[in-house]
Amino acid sequence: MGIAGGSLLLYITQISGTRYFGMFYFLLFTGLWIDHYSPKIRSVRKFPISEQWWKSIKKILIYGILGLHLLSGLWAYGMDLTKPFTNAEQVAQFLNTSGLSDRTIVTKACDGTPLSGYLQRKIYFTSYGNYQSYCIWGNPERNLFPKREVTISSLEMLTGLQEESIIFISFDKFFSAHEDEEWTSLNQNLRYRLLMKYEESIVKKGKYYIYEVEKH
After folding, report:
1. Contact of 166 with 159, CB cutoff 8 Å
2. What digits encode the pLDDT tens for the residues 75-113?
C-alpha cells in the first residue's frame, strides 16, 4: 500500500525526479521487516509454493536489491569523482570573472534555478515571462519543454528594452554558434555568439551553453 500510495502521489503531483525514489527503497524493506516479525496467518497465504521456497525467494530478492544498490553506489561515487553534478557554480564564476554577472541573465525555465542561487539574484525565465528564482511545478510542460518561439520572442523583447547585450544561458545547444566567439545573425532583430560551454556533468540539465545576445 505504501509503494502504491507513493506512486500515486508522484503521478498526481507530476514529480519525476530520481531524488524522490529512495522512499520506495525504504518502504520495501519496511514491509519486509514487518512481514518477518508479524504473526504468520497461513489461511491468508495461498501461494502455490511452499513456505521454505517463499523464504528462499525473498532472500534472493533482498540480497539482489542490496547488491544492485551497492554496484550503483560505487558507479555513482566514481562519477562524482570525475564529473561535477552540475556546472551551475562554474557558470556563475565565469560570469563574475568576465564582468557579465550584472547583465540581464536569461534562461528558458528551471535550468536557471541553480544559477539564481549562485548569483544571488533573480533570473528571467522566458517560459514564464518574468524574473524568478525557483520553478513553479503546476505546469511541467512549460518547465521541461518551453517553446523555442517563446524564448526568441522574449530575447527580442529584452534586447529592445536596453542598449547593452544580454546573457542567455541554456542547458542545450539552443543556437548553432561557432566556437570562436563570432557573431551570428539569428534574424533581422537579433544576433548572438557563444561565449563558453560546459558539457561535462552528471545530470543532463547540468550542461550549460552561455550566449551573448544583442540587437542586430
Report:
1. yes
2. 888 888 888 888 899 999 999 999 998 999 999 888 888
